[in-house]
Amino acid sequence: MLFSLRYHIIPYSLYFFNLPFYPLSEKRCTFATQFMKDKIKDWMIQKHDKRKQRTSIGFYKMEKNEKVNSVQEMAADKNKDHSADADRVKEVYKVTIAGSIINVVLLVLKFAAGILGHSAAMIADAIHSLTDFATDVVVLVFVKLGNKPKDKDHDYGHGKYETLATAIIGISLFVVGVMICYSGVTKTYRAICGETLQQPGVVALIAAIVSIVMKEWAYQFTVKAGKKYHSEAVVANAWHHRSDALSSIGTMFGIGGAIILGEKWAVLDPLAAIVVSIFIIKAAWGLVMQSVKELTDASLPETEEDEILKIANEEQGVGEIHNLRTRRIGNKIAIEMHVRMPGSLSLYEAHEHATHIETRLKQHFGADTHVGIHLEPVKVNGKYQKPE
Fold first, then answer.
1. What angle do CA 65, 66, 68 make, to 5 degrees?
2. pLDDT on residue 280
3. What are the backbone dihedrals phi and psi of residue 318, each rounded to the nearest 5 degrees, phi first?
4. Cα(279)–Cα(338) distance, rounded to whole angstroms?
5. How does DSSP assign 335-353, residue by residue?
6. Taking a C-beta distance cutoff of 8 angstroms, is the pair 159, 78 a contact?
7. What does DSSP assign to residue 300?
8. Are 317 and 353 contacting, i.e. CB atoms less than 8 angstroms apart?
9. Strands across the sheet containing 320-329
10. What number is the average pLDDT over the span 291-318?
11. Do 349 and 361 meet the contact criterion of CB atoms below 8 Å apart?
């Protein structure tokens, strides 16, 4: 090896550096030229491979860091969502349990006042408070179920449990309204037929006033939480509190009129119950119909769909929007649409526009909004054309 280097490399190097004192044949010069070219080429290839390897490692590290950052951001967003969901459940539980305590206190008070004060309207009001307590339990159970995250069997989450809870509350409220109305009608009919109704006592009037104040207070803090956290079940439960307050108002006027005007006007008690029952039935019907619409995937109101179209059309490059589909899933909404954009856009550019539309929709309707956008090229003369 050493002999080869001495015999070939050194003399050829001297030749290339124009050192005349070392004679070389033409054959050896040709061989030396090719030999040096091959060595230089090998050295350049090795250097390029090392540089490429370093670059690849750099890009790999950058890509790895980007993936790590992306995963960390997704994890942070997920933790943020879980934290918001936990706060939502906590607040819903807080207001519902507070309402339950009020319902239990009023339940005992109304039954005692109705029996001691000989007031049928107050006893009916007590039954109403009992259904309020039952719906509190329904809300506690179904809000917990509805707030579970999506899983393999529920791609859109469990939000419709809350809708189901709203339907149950509405039905129970409707039944209570019918019962109160039936009781008032039968007692009014008996009074018309000449039967003397027993005059209610003052204790029943006091219980009615206390009930009005307590139930209106319960309505205010419950409906505030329901609207804040977009829970239809909690809003429905708030209306259960409000209907109980309205029922107590009717009871108060009926009992008060019967006490002030005398025994002959005791019929005011059941008449007041009938009037209140109409309001209760109306509120219950609205809750049930709203729940039925959501459970059957009814579209969002036209005003909200117009707002969706407006937001999407404001994006640069949007040519047409069609096949808009919307529905409500518990306290969230789902939006799906087909968006036509210029066919000359690259896939990356089209994706950027779609992402921007999705971001703006979530900013407007909530971070948990489900948005599905199908991109299509703009039609030319009614046909899709391949871009040149």
1. 60
2. 77
3. -70, 120
4. 43
5. EEEEEEE-TTS-HHHHHHH
6. no
7. P
8. yes
9. 320-329, 332-341, 370-377
10. 88
11. no
Q: How far is CA 60 from CA 30, 68, 72, 74, 214, in A?
A: 45, 12, 18, 21, 65
Check pLDDT > 80 for residue 13. no
Alpha carbon distances (Å) from 161 to 79, 145, 164: 23, 6, 5
279: CB partners within 8 A, 6+ apart: 243, 246
Q: What is the pLDDT of residues 331-381, one digit of tens each?
A: 788 999 999 998 888 889 999 999 999 999 988 888 778 899 999 998 887
Cα gap 124→91, rounded to integer Å: 31
Q: Is the dihedral of CA 215, 218, 224, 227 positive or negative?
A: negative
Residue 107, number of CB atoms within 10 A of its CB = 19
DSSP assignment of 1-67 = -HHHIIIIIHHHHHHHTT-TTS---HHHHHHHHHHHHHHHHHHHHHHHHHHHHHHHHHHHHHHHHHH
Q: Return the structure tokens found at 184.
A: 């008032």
155: which 2 tokens? 């791609």
Q: How many whole angstroms separate alpha carbon 325 and alpha carbon 345? A: 25
User: In whole angstroms, what is the distance from residue 75 CA to residue 91 CA?
Assistant: 24
Taking the C-alpha atoms of residue 201 and residue 210, their distance in angstroms, rounded to an integer, is 15
Radius of gyration from C-alpha coordinates of the chain: 40
Is the pLDDT at 203 greater than 90? The verdict is no
Among 119, 253, 272, 249, residue whose Cα is nearest residue 197: 119
Rounded to the nearest 5 degrees, what angle is found at the Cα of 143, between the Cα atoms of 139 and 149?
170
Please state whether beta strands 332-341 and 370-377 pair in parallel, antiparallel, or not at all (unpaired): parallel
Nearest to 258 by CA among 204, 217, 212: 204
C-alpha distances (whole Å) from 288 to each of 173, 175, 244, 285, 295 are 10, 12, 18, 5, 10
User: Cα angle at 334 between 313 and 287, to 5 degrees?
Assistant: 120
Q: What is the DSSP string of 253-279?
A: HHHHHHHHH-GGGTTHHHHHHHHHHHH
- How far apart (Å, rounded) are the C-alpha atoms in residues 201 and 114? 9
Cα distances (Å, whole numbers) of residue 170 to 131, 136, 285, 288: 11, 13, 7, 5
At 57, the pLDDT band (50, 70, 90 cuts) reads very low
Do 100 and 88 touch, CB atoms closer than 8 A?
no
